[in-house]
């Protein structure tokens, strides 16, 4: 046992000044501070016209000036980028329309030449065939560019109808003479309410891409899954490199930098994705464990529920106020205390 007087005084390392156990209460925040978090959130959500009303000359006023200057510079920069993007889109749209008229005349001439190919000089026939194929390629490119501009401008619309999916896939394959290269696994009687023309565009791009890069046979399977429709397109090629997978739906993306020019326009899969999105669906790409690439198209069985949403978006793009815009005239500006 320790003797009572052994430690008459605490050791030196224990000596310390007495501390106050109570903390000073924090002063309540003023009214100017209480709305900062909300205004910062508004700016982060894209309301770049958010500003703070500055009063006084203290540290908070300086911080408010800094906030306003940063928001103003950000708003100006975004407006410049938006204007450049809009100008680029107008240029592509105008160029596509300007090319279409002379291209129609060129296409008519090449079709006549193709019909008379057997009567042409054997030395000339290959050149004629080259002109015909390149004209078709240019036609496809112009049509794809025009389709892209419609999506960018927000003018693409759904024309819905009841579609027997198996019949639609068969018609797509038959129209392009792919019957011998494509295997179809689809039960009859699966009916979905979709835009048949846009569904044909999606299928043609997915199947055509599989035939071009994966080779035949290409297997197309159709199956319903709850309220969704799944269409899988699988090829038996080498698959897609892992570094390419995240970019397969990008516009003008070329998997090989050594082949910048190919038969395609680089827009097919991007257009397929846009057509899936306008239905409220999506497309994913992956490599099958058995080999080859698999593209999975997921669409709603009934896309008509999106009609009202699309109408509202059109009104917003045209500047017509929606429910959330009532009383939101002009920019957001807040004065005084907490909003």
TrEMBL record:
It is a multi-pass membrane protein. Residues 1-19 have a biased composition (Low complexity). It is an enzyme of class 2 (transferase). It is found in: Cell membrane. Residues 94-303 form the Histidine kinase domain. It comes from Streptomyces himastatinicus ATCC 53653. InterPro entries: HAMP_dom, HATPase_C_sf, HATPase_dom, His_kinase_dom, HisK_dim/P_dom, HisK_dim/P_sf, Sig_transdc_His_kin-like_C. One of its GO terms (cellular component) is plasma membrane. CDD domains: HAMP, HATPase, HisKA. Its EC number is 2.7.13.3. Keywords: ATP-binding, Cell membrane, Kinase, Membrane, Nucleotide-binding, Phosphoprotein, Transferase, Transmembrane, Transmembrane helix, Two-component regulatory system. This is histidine kinase. Residues 43-79 form the HAMP domain. One of its GO terms (molecular function) is phosphorelay sensor kinase activity. Residues 1-27, 308-339 are annotated as: Disordered. It holds the Pfam family HATPase_c. It catalyses: ATP + protein L-histidine = ADP + protein N-phospho-L-histidine.
